[in-house]
Design a protein that fits this description.
Helix content: 25-40%
Oligomer: single chain
Strand order of the largest sheet: 2-6-5
CATH architecture of one domain: 3-Layer(aba) Sandwich
Strand content: 15-25%
Radius of gyration: 16 Å
CATH class of one domain: Alpha Beta
Structural class: alpha/beta
Number of strands: 8
Shape: globular
Length: about 210
Amino acid sequence: MAATGSSQIEFLESLVTAPGIAWGHVELFHLDEYIGLAGDHPASFQHYIRERILQRVPVGRAWLLDGAADPQAECKRVGEAIAAAPIDVAFAGIGENGHLAFNDPPADFDTEEPFIVADLAERGRQQQVREGWFASLEEVPRSAITMSIRQILKAREILCLVSGTRKAEAVKLCLEGDIGPMAPASALRLHENATVFLDREAAALLQSA
């Protein structure tokens, strides 16, 4: 499972240029997609995955979320596929409001559905503007398809990469605060094999930093 966003760019570049990976045996899912954006839109995550992974390495099969399709039908289509394909590793990040994928607070920690439709919080939408994916808040979609918290936690291993001062508050909330829906990425602490990689700026507010 692959995440998107600014914090993943350097990592994905290293991944697709690493030697010895049998990409033909890889089955790829991505975590989320804006509802209403076509796959060729520059800010769509389908476009991101194609540009940074699929055009670089010969992935065996990729299940890309289609933001222009019927959201419920798309959740069902890709949900059925992932239910039949146990996930070895998930790559993730933490949003400025603590979101994990597009599970914004208060996140649903209980649903067993693999993919759900989520309303996007304004702070998370503002993050997309600050990172340069959209020119204005009005352009950022208000809803998305996202992999659910419980589905993410089904991965055998999770690698979470977080960078930048703007993420420091969320990192502290999710790694040192209460585990629960108001800090969605705190769910990573429930996983027995999750590793969070932070740069100095993202880790600045942690007590142990």
